[in-house]
Design brief:
Helix content: 25-40%
Shape: globular
Largest sheet: 5 strands, antiparallel
Strand order of the largest sheet: 7-6-5-9-10
Radius of gyration: 20 Å
Order of helices and strands: EEHEEEHHHHHEEHHHEEEEH
Distance between the termini: 30 Å
Length: about 325
């Protein structure tokens, strides 16, 4: 569930779910903050990401194209200490011959919100992706073209001859352009309260560039910035004790930041399609530097850096 799948504009009544076929019962237990559905669904439209992966549901719900891995993660998270930091999960529904994971729409209780997605960790590919690439290399022309569009000198001589690059090579190269490798997180996209969207952060790498982007997002609102900091520090404490987090490789997951003109703020972990359980008894601390084989993802190292950056910004608001 990557941020830029959210906005407050452009939903159609056709996007409402008229009939629901449950494969799993609704979760029970303590509800997460903001999980009480509004009287009618809030409109939204996907800004970036995979088109067609998301649909608006009834009663403040959001439907995301089903994957078994994400379903298993969300089910486990409903029983974990992280429950209040993820969208409440309500099972699998079928719509137009397609299965969807149904969860709370995190924007439902905000008015004209500003939204930001930060992808967490020091890599966005799984270790198994590297193994598959070595076993069955499949050079991609489309990714080669994306690479040379950004930096014509980036491809190797062999890649120029092939006019193609491996997906993992492209992903590793792309991450060197952003703050993923230098800070353990990167800004994926921002939608401001006036509806203006920006996803041009591929080269936002230095600390000063990150601060500039974050400052543009929060403006001069110290209340909003303080709210985000409180929530992130609470999240860090819970992550450090979470059984789910300790036993999973969390790759490609994001933090969704939301605030509106009232000063209300929220931060949630989203998008668990590439989060995988570790083989017992392996556990991660999520701060150790990654070397192939240790499965570390740098998530907490990135969160530490994000908290430090926002803390340094407080005097600027």
């Amino acid at each position: 569930m990557t941020f830029p799948q959210w906005s407050q504009r452009g939903a159609r009544q056709a996007d409402r779910v008229n009939s629901v076929i449950w494969k799993k019962p609704r979760s029970t237990g303590t509800t997460s903050p903001l999980s009480v559905p509004p009287k009618k669904p809030q409109p939204w439209v996907q800004v970036v990401g995979h088109a067609g992966s998301f649909h608006a549901g009834d009663d403040g719900m959001l439907l995301k194209r089903h994957t078994e891995g994400e379903q298993q993660c969300l089910q486990r998270l409903m029983e974990d200490s992280l429950r209040s930091f993820v969208p409440a999960y309500h099972g699998v529904v079928r719509r137009s011959d397609q299965d969807y994971n149904m969860m709370d729409d995190l924007l439902a209780h905000f008015s004209c919100p500003a939204i930001m997605d930060c992808k967490m960790g020091t890599r966005t590919y799984l270790e198994e992706d590297l193994a598959k690439a070595r076993e069955r290399p499949q050079p991609r022309r489309d990714m080669y073209e994306k690479m040379v569009d950004v930096d014509p000198e980036a491809p190797t001589a062999e890649e120029r001859a092939l006019q193609a690059v491996l997906k993992t090579r492209y992903m590793q190269w792309r991450e060197t352009l952003s703050s993923t490798t230098t800070m353990g997180f990167r800004i994926e996209g921002i939608k401001k309260a006036d509806g203006v969207c920006n996803t041009n952060f591929k080269r936002t790498k230095s600390r000063d560039q990150v601060i500039e982007a974050l400052q543009d997002f929060v403006g001069s609102d110290g209340l909003v910035l303080s709210g985000y900091l409180r929530r992130l520090k609470e999240l860090r404490l819970v992550l450090e004790s979470s059984d789910f987090f300790r036993t999973h490789e969390v790759v490609g997951s994001s933090l969704l930041f939301v605030h509106d003109g009232t000063g209300r703020t929220g931060v949630w972990m989203i998008d668990f399609g590439r989060t995988v359980p570790l083989p017992p008894p392996l556990t991660l601390d999520h701060r150790t530097s990654w070397v192939e084989g240790n499965r570390e993802d740098g998530y907490l190292w990135g969160l530490d850096n994000l908290i430090d950056v926002l803390t340094d910004m407080l005097p600027l608001t």
